[in-house]
């Protein structure tokens, strides 16, 4: 059982694995390959919450809880490939995701007769049982563990830098390049530099971050490691230099330097 916020309504919803109603997508657990708008391909799993079609574009979307992101995410069905319905120790290969999810979607396009599209308008979906290879399971589990570790290692620094990057609510190419350089440096510190697939993953996280009003909690985490602190301070100084004269950026940099002074004082005792 998972409790999570519905991004559309803001309400807290409870998700459980298993469909209580076969005609509803709620509770369906799926795994699939996904191609994002920027062309990056990833393997994803979600516990489905709702499915709908957009009236103008007639694109079908699925929203659900993504354990990889530990949050609700929405995916466009036409960008899904190799979709598997997960149940127990077996998985069902969904050969035609568009047709499959159209059956479960709300706000379907109207049918030829002027009413809502009928079940008979939708061809039957052919499915086959497949076993996921143990090697694939192990590789996926390892990648998931690495992703979570990389996120944990990068997130505090990203929050600090994002606070400065958006000091004047403007984000340019130079700031984005500094953020990228920080991610590359941090991954190298954590011995992840050879795992190049982590860089776009960390950039996705950075794009989704909401800059905190106060960076104290993030800096407390950063200050636990001297090398990490120096790295964050280095890139924070570069960003602050891009925002000269901005009070928020200057205050953030002062706070970062004060944390460094306090840490040095503690080490000297």
Molecular structure report:
By secondary structure, the chain is an alpha+beta fold. It has two domains: 131 residues, no CATH class; 132 residues, no CATH class. It is built from seven helices and nine strands. Strands 6-5-4-3-7-8-9 form a seven-stranded antiparallel β-sheet. It has a two-stranded antiparallel sheet with strand order 1-2. Helix 2 packs across helix 3 and helix 2 crosses helix 7.
Q: Summary?
A:
The protein is of the alpha+beta class and 269 residues long.
Instruction: Quote the average pLDDT.
Output: 77
* Number of spatially distinct domains: 2
What is the tally of beta strands? 9
How far the N terminus sits from the C terminus, by CA atoms, comes to: 48 Å
Specify Rg, calculated over alpha carbons. Answer: 23 Å
Q: Which structural class is indicated by helix and strand composition?
A: alpha+beta
Taken from the alpha-carbon principal axes, the silhouette is: elongated
In terms of DSSP E residues, the strand content is 15-25%
Arrangement of strands in the largest sheet: 6-5-4-3-7-8-9
Helix content: 40-55%
Biggest sheet architecture: 7 strands, antiparallel
Low-confidence stretches: 107-132
Q: What's the SSE pattern? A: EEEEEEEEHEHHHHHH
Question: How many separate helices?
Answer: 7
């Amino acid at each position: 059982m998972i409790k999570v916020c519905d991004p559309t309504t803001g309400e807290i919803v409870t998700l459980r694995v298993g469909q209580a109603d076969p005609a509803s997508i709620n509770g369906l657990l799926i795994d699939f390959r996904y191609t994002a708008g920027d062309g990056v391909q990833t393997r994803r799993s979600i516990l489905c919450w709702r499915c709908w079609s957009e009236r103008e574009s007639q694109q079908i979307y699925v929203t659900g809880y993504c354990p990889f992101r530990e949050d609700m995410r929405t995916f466009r069905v036409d960008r899904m490939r190799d979709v598997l319905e997960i149940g127990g120790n077996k998985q069902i290969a969904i050969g035609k995701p568009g047709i499959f999810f159209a059956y479960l979607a709300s706000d379907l396009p109207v049918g030829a007769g002027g009413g809502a599209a009928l079940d008979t308008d939708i061809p039957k979906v052919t499915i086959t049982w497949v076993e996921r290879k143990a090697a694939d399971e192990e590789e996926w589990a390892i990648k998931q563990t690495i992703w979570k570790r990389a996120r944990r290692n990068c997130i505090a620094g990203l929050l600090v830098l994002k606070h400065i990057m958006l000091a004047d609510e403007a984000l340019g190419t130079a700031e984005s390049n500094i953020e990228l350089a920080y991610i590359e440096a941090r991954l190298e510190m954590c011995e992840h530099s050879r795992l190049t697939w982590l860089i776009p993953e960390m950039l996705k996280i950075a794009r989704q971050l909401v800059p905190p009003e106060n960076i104290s909690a993030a800096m407390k985490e950063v200050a636990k490691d001297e090398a990490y602190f120096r790295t964050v301070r280095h890139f924070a100084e570069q960003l602050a230099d891009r925002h000269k004269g901005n009070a928020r950026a200057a205050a953030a940099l002062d706070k970062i330097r004060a944390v460094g002074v306090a840490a040095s004082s503690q080490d000297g005792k």
